[in-house]
Please model this.
Amino acid sequence: MLYAQVHLTLPAWVHEAVDTTADYADDDAKMALAIRLSALNVEHGSGGPFGAAVFTPEGRLLGVGVNRVLPHSTSIAHAEMMAFATAQQRIQQFRLNAERGPITLATSSQPCCMCYGASVWAGIDRLLIGARADDVERLAGFDEGPLPADWRGELAKRGIEVITDLRRVEACAVLAEYGCSGKVY
Model:
């Protein structure tokens, strides 16, 4: 029998941990939320050490995501993918920037090859990154997959601004904690 639906969920603790009415006015506040989500996901044992959040131009929260690959047994349940999906469902549009102006994705770690591509298709205009891909591989043992040699330039060609190393030390601490746990897949 083939499954006719896919059901992905965020852990229950997200509802208590995220203030959907808060104003995330600056990039530091946006990144703080993404890293906090990643840390809570590790703390609660509800997935891998990754968190992401999508914001409007005014700094209002549209959606959040944490890594849910292992709990859902699906490779697509990365934090960024979950954040895109929750934001898209909230506004009922697959292209997040279609009517809202520049949309920002804050992610605790540099997107892997899948999430990199999805960022383009989801309609992200600004990408805020905490830890680097080599941090993810070195500290947590994940294979982030191939990216174009000039991945930043490719995003820039599509009008996507990239800001890296925001709260990198804090993001790396979450990766290191997870890496020491032995739960690497």
In short: Residues 140 and 181 are 9 Å apart (CA to CA). The chain is about 45% helix and 15% strand.
